[in-house]
Amino acid sequence: MMFLTSGAYYGKIRWSKVFTILLYCIFFNFVGALILAWFFNQSLSFNHLTDRSFLVTAVSTKLGQTDWMNFTEGITASMFVNLAILSYMLLKEESAKIFIALSAIFMFVFLVNEHLITNFTSFMLIGFNGVRNAVDNFTLANILHQWVIVFFGN
Fold first, then answer.
1. Where are the transmembrane segments (predicted)?
2. Coil vs helix vs strand at 51
3. Mean pLDDT across the chain
4. Which helix (H) or strand (E) holds 18?
5. Which terminus of the chain has a smaller tally of CB atoms within 10 A, N or C?
6. Which helix (H) or strand (E) holds 153?
């Protein structure tokens, strides 16, 4: 998103092309999350999720937040991703690049910040699992609403 927006701002790419590329990226990330979540839920690891599992708690937290919280966490997640991408491009030392990449992974997993593509995956993992009934507000309308708010934050 950052590179497309910058390219459009500086006139290197048309806004219509930006929206087309963004639409394709979001759609195929959704399809990939759908397929991978289904496959992961066929494994032993995901057959033992309970209402106390980290994934269930994370999804419950995400769906229980206010729109403002989702929006601002979407912004902070994008800021960190942009920082990680730029740092990875500009840093010379390989160990520093690895540290930055691991920091981004840590933020998404343990700080439960909002990112649309990450939410595609976490919600699908719960959706294909029997423990989805333990998640409050796990309805299609609430999930779609959350995705729209987070999209604008990202």
1. 21-40, 74-91, 98-117
2. coil
3. 90
4. helix 15-40
5. N
6. helix 140-153
What ranges do the domains of the chain cover?
Answer: 2-153
Asked if residues 85 and 76 have their Cβ atoms less than 8 Å apart, the reply is no
Cα separations (Å) of 132 from 36, 78, 85, 128?
A: 17, 27, 34, 8
Calpha distance 131→69 (Å, rounded): 25
Token duo for residue 40: 């992961």
Q: Is the pLDDT of residue 105 over 80?
A: no
One-letter amino acid for residue 140 of the chain: L
Q: How far apart are CA 73 and CA 63, in angstroms?
A: 13
* pTM score, whole prediction: 0.84
Asked if residue 109 lies in contact with residue 69, where contact means CB atoms within 8 angstroms, the answer is no
